[in-house]
């Protein structure tokens, strides 16, 4: 055989091998892909089985947790009623029903069969426990008068709870309510003891002696268990056994389907109330799913086939790949052409320039139109100022830079643009690619919005937020000791608004703001703080004298200003509070000092300046009241007001009446301390918070009148104090009338007290309110009477029921003859008017004897009773 023939055969053999190589590669790829697919299908199948088991265990544990939660809710419900019996000497059926109705949304009531109280009765030498109160009535009539002794399991639970003072669960037994309907063990009872009044017993012997009855809550097992079993397609059966005695005792079995006990079951114990339950949950029998029936096998087969086809294509199409590369090159050039056309259509400015000399190589249509440039006409540096061009030049090769810069067109004014610069290479030439967007309008709008956000729209001065920011910045700067804050409040500005309208008021504010700006130095800051209030931040003021001089210049300018409006002329004045920034550590403290100083300037007669100083007691008092006002608002919002009551006792012999009390307001501070009214009521009076406090006292006292005093609905009269601010509250009487009607309160049980000083200050308002209250049926007392003897003549003009002698006279009754005469005179005049007379501040039995001698009807004070917290707030 010749060499040529050998070579031809070799080439033929190589060609044959090359023809088979794609098929071998394709087969190898398909086998590997199918192996991975089978492995993944088996792994997913195992994971699905594990996940199914985990979900079942989670669902089963959820059932056990839900049963435990139901039992805990049951315990909480019965403990609620135990606390009611502990708080009251005797709970009536009506009170029992009221509390039961208030718990209508309680979760434990869903499965509650009955809630009952069994009273301990001892007679005939034996001890019985008779069911005397129970709810709901319907469906539980059979337990009326039930003796717990008849049910051994129930009795055993009762005795165990009595001796331990803990909740005790009875052994399951057929409930009496279901007897005759079923013979199954279908219920259990939770028991808690009720002890008599006195200290809580701590030993078994003490508990047995103090035991007066037992609270029992009965629940039906089927309802309790069925309500927590979900219908989720996983649970087949729930079995509950009582394991307390060692051997299982079947309590309930709830089935939803065919159980697969071998593969799906979960067992868990519950210990509660001295008993142990075992909960066994069986899963539903599910069809076994083959690992080969899932979508993974079919998808894997498809992917393996595709992988085989890809392998065949890679090994068999070398020539086709070369052809494809040529085609792609052509398409790339076409894409580049389309990119250039698209760039021409972009609204953004696109500029390409050489890096080493800045020559412009390309500008799109938007750039040529906006800049008036063509490629090669000018350099890149001509489009920016020196500072902007230096920033662009700082961009390193391969990096990008974005900034807002001014661009300079050839024939028009410079404009602001958002410029993005990238350093790239085009055909191995370092170039700059610049994309810019005209943001002139957006920048103008941003500046306008920034101005509007920091300036008052009416006066064009700084608004409060911006002014406070400037003051805060100055306060934090090293030069804060050379700055002062002026707080300016226009006097009688409301008069101009009321007489000439708001347009006149607005115009006045504009003129005054402009005038004050002219009087201030460029370094000073003026701001409108709101309404007719302005603030001035004085810079470079080294002493209080300098701040006072600047404030005085402003005050004189305002005082001499004449405001003309529609043929009317007004004079203006202002009260100014001043404070050095060095006198405060925070912005809030600084403004509080300035506001307090301005307030004192107004209180001193207006049109003057008050400068804050550390030793100014008036400022300190004002700040304290401001702080109390803020704390009072928080207390009202957080319901931290409290009520105490003090009893009034008849002191004349032979008088037997119902109990009478006066309610007194207290405050619980943020740290839990109790605050007496003398600390916060002055601030409430000054800052207009008394109407809100009075309304709270009126609403709370009337709504809970039977829960103020231990005598309950046997309370005769509840006295409520009204402040001077409440006399001007037109809605107060309507509030009283609405509460009397809605709460069903006898208005004769309400006694409203108005102090003599308040009544005399506004006799018309006092007389009108007194007449309305007495027409409603309420009674009215004149409190602190006698402090002004000239007011005796008003007694015949006021419709009163009671007069209360001022306590200052009562305290000096034993030592001062004048006080004795005043008390005697008030008593005689009151009796002539048919009024009951009450003496306050009675602190000794000696005072009681003297008051009894002069004929006083009632006495009130520490000698008789010290204030106590009302019953419902204890």
From TrEMBL:
Predominant location: membrane
BP terms from Gene Ontology: signal transduction
Cofactor(s) the protein requires to work: Mg(2+)
SMART domains given in the database record: CHASE, EAL, GGDEF
Keywords for the protein's UniProt record, in alphabetical order: Membrane, Transmembrane, Transmembrane helix
UniProt keyword annotation of Ribonucleoprotein present: no
Protein name: EAL domain-containing protein
